[in-house]
Design a protein that fits this description.
The complex is a heterodimer of chains A (610) and B (353). By secondary structure, chain A is an alpha+beta fold. Helices cover 43% and strands 15% of the residues of chain A. In chain A, the strands form 3 sheets. A 5-stranded mixed beta barrel of chain A has the order 4-7-6-11-10. Chain B has 3 domains: 216 residues, Multidrug efflux transporter AcrB transmembrane fold, CATH 1.20.1640.10; 73 residues, Alpha-Beta Plaits (2-Layer Sandwich), CATH 3.30.70; 49 residues. Chain B is elongated and about 100 Å long. In chain B, 44% of the residues are buried. Classes of the chains: A alpha+beta (610), B alpha+beta (353).
Amino acid sequence: MAPPTSSQSKPGRTLLALLALILAMGATVALQKAFVPKFGLDLAGGTTVTLTPVTLDGKAPPPESLDRAVNIIRARVNGTGISDAEVAKANDNIVIQIPGVGQSEALKLVSTTAELRMRQVLAVAPAKMQPQQMPIEAPTPDPGKSPSTMPSAVRTPSGAPSGGPGAAATTTPAGRALSSALLAAPTPSPATRTGHRSGAKTGAKSGARSGAGSDSGSEGGSADGAGAGTSPSPTPSPQPNDDDPLAGQDTSGIDPALLTEFREIDCTAKNRGQGAQDDPSKQIVACSDDGTARYILDKAAVQGTEISGASAGTDPTTGEWIVQVNFKSKGATLFADITRRITSLPAPRNQLANVLDGVVIVAPTIEEAIPGGSARISGSFNQVSATELADQLKYGALPLKFKQGSVESVSSTLGQDQLRGGLISGALGLLVVVFYLLLYYRGLGLIGMASLGCATIVTYLTVAVLSHNAGFRLSLPHIIGLVVSIGITADSFIVYFERVRDEIKEGHRTLRSAVEVAWRRARRTILVADAVMFIAAVVLYFLAVGGVAGFAFAMGLTTLIDIVVVFLFTKPLMTLAARLRFFAKGHRLSGLDEGRMGRTSPAEQTLQEA
Amino acid sequence: MPGVISRLYRGDIDIDFVGKRRLWYGLSAVLMVVSILGIVIHGLTLGVEFKGGSVIDFARTPGSSLEQVRESVRDIVGHDPIVQQAGPNWRITTQSLDGTEVSAVQKAVTQRFGVPQEQVSTQVIGASWGGEVSQKAWIGLAVFMIAIMLYLSVAFEWRMALAAIVALVHDLVITAGVYAWTGFEVTPATMLGFLTILGYSLYDAVVVFDMIKEVTAKLGTSAKMTYTQAANDALSHTLIRSLNTSLTAILPVAAILFVGTTLLGAGTLKDLSLALFVGMVVGTYSSLCVATPILVTLKEREPKWRALAKRVAARQASAAKAAAAAVRDDRTATAAVAAPQNVTITDTKRKKR
């Protein structure tokens, strides 16, 4: 008799662990009221929208950009790849279908362009001038290099523009700040002061003239002061006209046409340029996304295409939500260059605006050159908005701007008869299987049945939990796949049962030791075979997209469930059963009786062994 | 017959799978050729999701049901269209239609539901599973094959890896062939069915190989069995498990296929369960009759196993002589040599080929 192994001695404990797992998942399901898993497009229907590309000349967009847009939207809409959404081209439009009704918010999200551009701030002002504005105060003494002098600026993003320029200053930036991940100060204040530094430009490189600049790189459109170099140019300071938002700001190097536009733009209007496509090789006027500030921005220094990855997370020290952005090598160089160049400039020209789809989402002061190829965007994010922005940046910008057509809910593509038919016939098939197992394995069949039941429960709970927490959607192929996978669970214990019977057939072992020895051999087979399934699932999940990825996810899931059930349920149950007289003595109905084992009588067995 | 069943029941059977390998190779070759011919001649009927198609929208009139809508256009488009409610409309998605077919559909809708013909709009829709989705799926499949080859080469050996992959391709080709000949539509659901087969086929082969590895590992230089015999032994050993497993997996699928084809007519259920059913039957066959024979063919080329086969043959030849002599001398001794004698018979059979 083999020495009892640890697993043999504590089968009860293992079963309890499994029970705890099931109860925990059951409690989650009950608490979330997630009893019915969410279904995919084919079973539950969903929401559909047609996106029409908007081109400047009104002509059809190039097919390549449309294809690229389809791929990006598919990546965004599927996110983790298990939501079973569909994206297709229809003529020159893109049709998106998302499972579930009332998904118009999600649809809006995926159709935003997400074009990120980093541009140096050339001038800034509150959104709208108040008629009775106070004269511009004397220039704030600080040259914009002491970022944390006005912490309130960071925290009051949505204050309405009020009379005084001081107040206005606090409302200027959107309250988000970008800093190097390495940077110590977590929230460099935007520190934008409207009424100071009339002309003291220092350190501006006088290379390309921004007005006519043809270079869209980092150097292009640098703040070339009138005098360039280090000579401060005494641009007329505070103009008598109080209404001029440019009062007191250095307008050198800015396209005159933009100055007019800047004066006229109303950033408090509902439509303040969101979703616009800005030309990266030109200076632009833009609003902050909360409508509290307006900016004149230089040509794009770094573009979203230079981003290699983005992730949402929390700042370890402050706990606030941030988006961490990593650049490709060229982007890293560009970003290092622009930050190095502008950090020594006076405010507001030491601010680097992040323009997303035509609006400034954040314009932090750059305190020092940021090498290393990564930056982070921090500020008034919450988990949802940070994740959203990270996803948009990660999957890239759409090469086209889209107009959203009508949002419609569509019914399922499959008749309900298909689901019902599938479920009923699958259940019938399983019932036949159960009868067969009982007939063939008798008492062992009971253990098999219990294992199947356990696998079904665990599968159901996992699917319910995942569909409510990870966006997993069950489609008909998934359901059929789950039915098949139950067959694979059955295989695991069939392999085990056959091993047990082999051990007993091979001779002089008691059932107790046979169960253990057979387990060691069956375990290897089960693990090796399940590993094949799991590799298949993992490879396809990560490499394929759309429905294939979703299906691979389900496949990997069921493989894991198989292992859990066999290790934590079937095996301990076998160990317990081996202690029962019914099995140990080879009762006629136990499935382990001698007639079954090919031994006609113990006497003959002994004879053969001799 | 009851004898066979009870022997099966006890797991006490000995079928010479490996010895008949030429028969299996022949059978598989014929099946593969027929399948490939079917794919070449008939081609696969790809669904709207792969090729794109036409979308027809018209207002939902009171009292019209989904079945009626499907019914009204089925004959014109020649297959079962996807019918959905989209906002206040019915939306029919079909294969690409040309001008005359479009107007035929419009007429049919007008006649049946009284919707003015000009209010039946048609639109061309692209493939939701085209381009990138298919391309990435193929890349995934290629990487998967390589990963499995590597894994099986490490866990077992490269010969087993090769045999398993050959069996896998065999299963997929034959399943695709069945689709080509029957003209069943290949939809995304079918593709997912293929993926399931892929996993299942490999899983089955691996379980069998694991047993072969275990049995043949005990074969030393003084073994009384050749690799072929040992492998066949292992197969017989796992036969019960193979049959039981296949039955448990196939029975539910067969039930779904039955319901899908006979009671529900066309639909995803039929497309999917046919793929699974055919794939699983072929997969069970191939793990026993294709994967293992290929493995044995590869293994018997190894010097080690060839030498063993020679030694076993020589030893058994002399044992047979001795036994024959013993039988002449003393008939009561038969029982003692019963087992070796069995082996001799199979061995001479092999030598004849």
